[in-house]
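Lab meeting, action items carried over

1. Structure of the three-component assembly. Owner: GW. Status: complete.
Input record:
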Amino acid sequence: MGQIYSTLDRMLKDGLVELAGAEGADEERKTYRITEAGLAELERWLARPPLKARPMRNEIYVRLGLLVEKDLRRALDLLESQRRVYHLQMAELTRAKIQLAKERGPERLRQEMMLDAALLHVEAELKWLDNCEARLRARGGMEA
Amino acid sequence: MTREMIRLDQVVKEFRRGGATVRAVDGVSLSVAQGEFVAVMGKSGSGKSTLLHLMSGLQQPSSGKVHLLGRDLSRLSDDELTLLRREQVGFVFQFFNLLPTLTALENVALPLLLARVKRSAAEARAREALATVGLSDREGHKPEELSGGQMQRVALARALVTDPPLLFADEPTGNLDSHSGEEVLLLLKQMQAERGQTIVMVTHDPKAAAYGDRLIRMQDGRVIDDQVTGEGA
Amino acid sequence: MRTPLGSVSQPLQMARHYLWGRKGRAFMTLAGIALGVTMVVAVLLLNKAILGSYENLLTAAAGRADLQVSATTGFGFDERLLAAVRETAGVGAAAPVVSSGAPVFAGDRQAGATFYGIDVELDQKVRDYRLTAGRLPAADGEAAVTTDLAEGLGLAEGDSFRLLTTQGLKEFRVVGVFDARGTVRGALGPFGVLTLEAAQEAFGKAGRLDVIDVIAAPGESLAALRERLADALDPQVRVTTPAERSRDMEKLLDAVVFLLTVAGSVSLFAGTFIIYTNVSMSVAERRRELSILRALGMRRGEVMAVVLTEAGLLGCLGALAGLANGFGMAWVMAEQMTDQFLNAYGVQRAAVTMDPAALAAALAVGIGAALVAACGPARETVMVSPMEAMRPTESPGIDRARLDWRRGAAGLALMLPGSLTIWLTWPQNEMVSPPVLRLWGLMLAVLLLGTVLLLPLLLNLLTRAVLRPLLTGVLGVTGRLAADNLIRMPRRTAATVSALMVALTYMVAMGGVEASQMAAFNRWFEKNIGWDMNVSSSYSGIGALVEMDDGFVQQLAEVEGVRLVSPQKMMRVILSDGEQAFMQVFDHRLLRQYSETPLEEGSWPEAADLMEQGGHVIISPAVAARLGLDLGDTLELPSPGGTLTLTVAGIMTDITPYGGTLNIDRRDYLRYWNDATSSNVAVLVEPGHSPEAVRQRILDRWGDTMPLAIRLNHEFWQELKVSYDSFYGLNEALTWIAVLVSGLAIANTLFAAILERKREIGVLRAVGTRRGEVLQVVLGEALSIGLVGGLIGSVAGLTLQRVMVAASQYINGAATEWVVDWGSLAMAAAVALLLAPLAGLLPARWAARLDVVDALRYE
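Predicted assembly:
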């Protein structure tokens, strides 16, 4: 809760928002109103592509990192079972997509975009698994 | 128990390449049941296309047996194989492979015309197939006047026109943009659902493979994984 | 870093690698080029050999003579003219000659040779005799012969041989052997000399000369001398240079030359086409490969250089092979022509010699056609962006299936002046001059070219209107695909069709011309040759070389079973227009009992009555046209006894190729020529006697004393037929080469087409087309090529035949009429319908056996 107030304070300082007069009895409640400059900044923000890459948070990275030093064989097994999981995920997402294709309505587009994102992420993970496998095999002197 | 459409027993296919013998398919055994949509994945050179050629009777194995619809392919003559393909099997290829001198409608009607179905009847059925793939308004067009996605849909219509129980697709989305690719895959899915067709699709694209409900992955001519990915998996 | 040498040798090496890598295709291309060049070279060399042979003969015989006095009256001229010549101012030397071809016998050996009667002293001023033994003849019964003849007969100085004379065989002793070298030997073949008097007696020319060879006095102008001589002498002789005399022969050979020119044009076309299809195919096949070179940074010019070098190399090799082959073919044909045709004119040998012109023509045709053929596809390849060309072609050729109106219009535009020129130069009444004939040959080539340009369009329309429905109806969808494929590469298919079309055009036209001539010949023969048998000595072709004297004819009449003998005489005379004509002398009182001269104008018994009266002549339409004569007009004919004035009693049908014929009556001939010899004797047999038995009796009666050639009626027919056949044999040989070549072209085109459409065949197979049905598609395409080629070829052939038949009466005055030759049409149809599928069989089998997966693969 505190974080939002410090952000609002900073925005107030920058003149992006202003305090509206206290309305009603509740003293604790502050009402902010967006300023002209604030509106302009919002437009800019919407159009600006986020620059930071998605952080790596998947457990698999950690486990793989640990196994690499310990046991190459098990690392490869881990990759393979993870791959099966991802394929299952993709199939599931695809089924959702097929289902979605039959529906109409305002939600469809947004959901399709979300599903695409999810599918592409899984695809990227699969590709990464392939790369990892290639590296591991090269390291272990195994054939592809 | 559902009917077994394809069975492979210890199938091996060898090629001679510059003096050396290469095993493109190395002892594969598997079975495909009616109504399955099988995706075969693998890197290039993994033997997945050869597997498709063997399953569909376009090539004969070096050893092992291939049964298609209960018939041992090694016992069929070339003409019998051809007739089997004409009547029971539909093909969709990566490069559409339409005949450039024929219109969309004629391309679709081709398998029927080859089977000496009367022209009017053949065209009526071809029209239906074109309607199924949503190209009724393009029947008089030559392939060169169609987009890639449209060509592939015509090819799909050609594969469907004889209403074959089996459909083989070799990288059907390989030459299409993602949107056209999705359309074609959705159509395949629709065929499986509505007509109960058995589909075997070779692809290197996991997104395309995800449309299947069984995934066979190949490496060095062997099946390294055979996984059910469909509902309830 | 690129040196000039580098930029030349690099394409050369690449071309070599490529050709070596595809030996099969390269060989096929090479064979095509070689065959094409063979045709051209053979025709060219033969043409030259035939024309050259007579000229060589005359100039070689003339020695150092500047001018020659020769007879216009056929059978020699009065020897007293020699004195007049010698007295003419400006004449340095004058040597009289009498000559005749004759058979010679020595022991059991026999040979044919020309014998010259010479005045030994005078003659050595004109000719050199390099004696290797003995001396020249000085008295009757003596002879000198060439080393060739001596060797042929196994004779040495002092030996004797027998020579056929008008009175029978007569013995001569060899008193000298001389060596004829170089051109003389080549042109004259083996020959011998006798004294003038001996020769005059032997050949029935007492008091006559054939030629006086004249050498001008030093410093004398030839033109002036010639004029003076002409003034001093009378019209029974003329004064010419030796070479000019050979023009008579050229005229006679015009018909042959015309046929050969047509054959040449046709072979040039067929040859060019096979080269074109072969080379353009090999370039088209390598489209992607060449594009990769482009993508790797080769410039357009450099890629063109690679392709053109390769084509040039093939063209050059093919041309050389074709040159050798053509030389051989011309040689064989020249031998045949000499035996069948030229012997009658005293030509012993038509020497085929390789000359720079033939070499140049062979190289020009071989290399030129290869380069032109390579240019089109190579340009197409380098003009598209490399990336586009490397992309697997989805639909090869489909973009060019549009109707090619522009080329079609160009074709029509070419055909127009071609036909217009022929139409405008079509003779009204006069004979066609050689330049016009050559022009016609050229225009025929132009017409062919026009047809060829028109062909893609025609092919397209024909396929859409006729072939596609037809094939679809018969074969179903495979037929439909075959018809479609046919017009996907209209130019290439058209080139192939052209090759076939040209071959068949030629086949139909020549067959038709031959049939027309045979029909005319048969009709002519039936009426004109009514005798039971014909007796002559040393018979060769149509003219006998040694005449028979009157005594022999009288004795012949006394043989048992002979009802009637009628002496006939044949000779060549010079008419008032300076050109040659063939003159026949008949005793019309006798002739009318066994023959009827077929008349175009006038009627027979009446004309025979007039001829019997004397003072009349029957002429051929050619003579009528040359001199502007009609029935009842008069004709002036020079003779040894002064100029005759003859009234035209009839105009006869003429089938001989001699440029004009006239018949006179024997009584007029005896009076004016004072010559009782005959060339041959027509014999009628008494009823109840068989001609064979009578012939045997005649042969027994004369036995060894006089070798006789006796032909029965049907044998004569057979003989003439054979000489016709051998003449047309040349055309047949060329036709079959052209057919062979077009078969190669068809196979080649189909191979290339299949190669390009390999994947389509894979698709067809995958979706359920049986091998047999793939076979049908390719054979359907082949059959269509055959059908179109056959159809257009037949129409063009009939047209050409029509023109040639119509032209032939203006070329040599021989009347022929247009006869549809079903035989050659059937043959053309058979070739079109069988050759094409046969040529397509190999490609079709290949296509049907393609591995489906292989065919579907992209590489």
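2. GW to write a short summary for the group page. Key points so far: The first strand of chain B starts at residue 4 and ends at 17. The interface with chain C takes residues 53, 58-59, 78-79, 82-83, 85-87, 91, 93, 95-102, 110-111, 113-116, 142-144, 158-159 of chain B (CB under 8 Å).
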